[in-house]
Amino acid sequence: MIDRNLELPNGQVLHIYDSGPAPRTVFWHHGTPNLGTPPPFQTPGIRWVSYDRPSYGTSTPVPGRTVGSAAELTKAVADALGINEFAVMGHSGGGSHAIACGALLQDRVIAVAAMASVAPFDAQGLDWFGGMADIGSLKAATAGRAAKEKHAATAEFNPEVFTAADYAALEGSQKWVNDVVGPAIDAGPEGLIDDDLAYVTPWGCDPNQITAPMLLIHGDDDRMVPATHSKWLKTRCATAELRLSPGDGHISVLDRAREALEWLSAC
């Protein structure tokens, strides 16, 4: 895996990760707060490409970025690496960014896999905060940057957002998550703040624009992003298939990542 800073034509710097040429390319979109280091469930025949979103790691900030901004950034990375078509995959807020790529890059994205994804904040008919164990961080973001920054300065992790299955996964099969969360937090709250502000403002695209096949996987016991978000996305996206994962929470649902990769490989 090669990771390096990539300077885009507009002067923006993104820290990218690239496993090198392979028959199929998958762009991985990381959650919040994470770095973009690709997860350990890569499979043969797949080229893994990802990047630290702006304000994470050495990726420079993009003031006012939206979830939809991921499409422009992903396209720029693909162009720099000479990649024409690719699939996109993400977890949690990363799933939202993958969905935005599918909506805005219809001529490039061949498939979308989103796990435990957040739906658009303006989703009609969805109780967006309903079922979340802790709404403090995202609720603060709805009041603007100053309120979000104030909240981030004193906020503490609420252990209720994870289930027993989540904690077991963090100690075992998904232990790698700790390695991408820790450095992202240690570097400061800017990436998290920018992400949360993006989640509660218009995405700049509509998921119903997606024409590629889409797979939604969501734990039915998710307390961080309830499964109602993926259920709403399923009703909005004509190409979407929804697979609920009984007994899984926000992290343990990643145990089904290889299933998502098999699906992507078959598209």
Automatic annotation (TrEMBL):
Listed InterPro entries: AB_hydrolase (IPR050471), AB_hydrolase_1 (IPR000073), AB_hydrolase_fold (IPR029058)
Protein name from the UniProt record: Alpha/beta hydrolase
Chain ranges of the AB hydrolase-1 domain: 30-259
Xref: PANTHER family: AB HYDROLASE-1 DOMAIN-CONTAINING PROTEIN (PTHR43433:SF10), HYDROLASE, ALPHA/BETA FOLD FAMILY PROTEIN (PTHR43433)
Keywords: Hydrolase
Membrane-spanning intervals of the chain: none
Protein's UniProt keywords contain Membrane: no
Signal sequence, start to end: none
GO MF, one annotated term: hydrolase activity
Superkingdom assignment: Bacteria
Pfam families: Abhydrolase_6
